[in-house]
Structures are given as C-alpha cells and as structure tokens.
Amino acid sequence: MSFRRVMASGLHLWKRACPKAAALPLAGIKTSNTAPTAAAGVKVDDALKRAKVAYAKNQKRMMFEELLNMDKSRVKETIDQYKSEELTYVSVTKSDLHQWAKRFDKQGKYEHALAIFEWMDGKKMSFTGNQFADYVALIAETKGMEAARRYFKKVDPNFNRMDSNCKNWPAFQKLLRFQHESLEKKGLMYLNYVGKVRPISDYE
C-alpha cells in the first residue's frame, strides 16, 4: 500500500467522522431560533477531539504496517515522505518512531528498527537514556559488538563506568549483556567484577 493510499484511506475515515460529530448536539435539543447552548458546544468539541484521535491512530497504524511490509532499504525514504506530507491531525513524533522501532525489534525486524534509529540520528534528534540503549543494542545485533562500542564511544567519549546514575548507563549495561551472551556461547567468559566482563584471553 502506497503512502498516498494510506493517507487517502484515513482522510475518508475523517470525512465520515466529522459529519457525525457535528450532528451530535442536535440529538435531544428542541428546535428553536436561539443560539446553541454552551453544553451543546462542548459536546461538539469533545466529539471532534475523539474523531481526530481515532483518525490519527488509524493513520499511524497503516504507516507502521506499510513500513513493516517493505524492504528495509526503503524505510528511511518512506519516513521522509511521511514527514513531508503530514496532514493536519497526523504528526509522526519521535515517540511514534521509537515505538515502531521497538515493535520491529520484537518481531525480529532488526534492520527495519535500526533504519528508524539511523533516520532519527541523521535528523540530530536527541535520545533519552533508554532510547540510546535500544539503538546501541540494535547496532550490536546487526553490525556487531565492535561497531556498537565505536558508536557508544563516539557519543559518550568520557563515559564513567563507575557512575551508575549517568544517562548512558542503560546502554552500557546492554553492551555488557550482549558481550556476556556472546562470550558465553563461545565458552570464553570470565567475570571480573560487577560492571566488567572480559574474555579469558585478557588475563592470560
């Protein structure tokens, strides 16, 4: 399904919802020449808000499904298209993109998830500690531990591994866990102390 078809389908839903919302205040109100009451106006506003929320939710669901079913190489350009053709009540936020990436990750679509993070990174979006941790984990999963380490060091060259309260501690923990699992599979694990994992060869 193309982006324009996605938006057209959602717009059809919005057009159907608006007349219904606008008609709601008429129910149960006697015909008169007086202006609509304040309560009637509130009902209209509430109905329109609900219609807007439903419309935006439906649009974003279709966007996610379109990204899910396309080749990973087209993810970034498609997000660019979403952002350039945003409609009045549909704005793709950083939170939306992060949630989509997490859903891709859970479904084993690691390259799709990574493409979303790379798009956000390319747009110079700031990451929370947990978002950065998810990004680093995806790099390790798709490009290897060394690539993940390099990116972590590039972002936080002065990281203090003794400060468990720092912003990027969750990412550091994920790197440790990934390394631990990788070494364990190879039977080359040596635990030194909490916060440090090294291969046996480092101690020989």
What does this structure look like?
- With 204 residues, the chain is mainly α.
- It folds into 2 domains: 1-28 and 36-93, no CATH class; 126-204, no CATH class.
- It contains 8 helices and 2 strands, in the order H-H-H-H-H-H-H-H-E-E.
- The chain has helices at 3-23, 38-68, 75-84, 94-106, 110-122, 129-143, 145-155, 169-186; strands at residues 189-193, 196-199.
- A two-stranded antiparallel ribbon has the order 1-2.
- Helix 5 (110-122) crosses helix 6, helix 6 runs parallel beside helix 8 and helix 7 (145-155) packs antiparallel against helix 8.
- The radius of gyration is 24 Å and the shape is elongated.
- The N and C termini lie far apart (57 Å).
- Residues 11-15, 19-31 and 190-204 have low confidence and may be disordered.
Short structural description:
It is built from 8 helices and 2 strands. The N and C termini lie far apart (57 Å).
List the helices and strands and how they pair.
Blueprint: H1 3-23, H2 38-68, H3 75-84, H4 94-106, H5 110-122, H6 129-143, H7 145-155, H8 169-186, E1 189-193, E2 196-199
Antiparallel strand pairs: 1-2
Family: Belongs to the PPR family. P subfamily.
Protein name: Pentatricopeptide repeat-containing protein
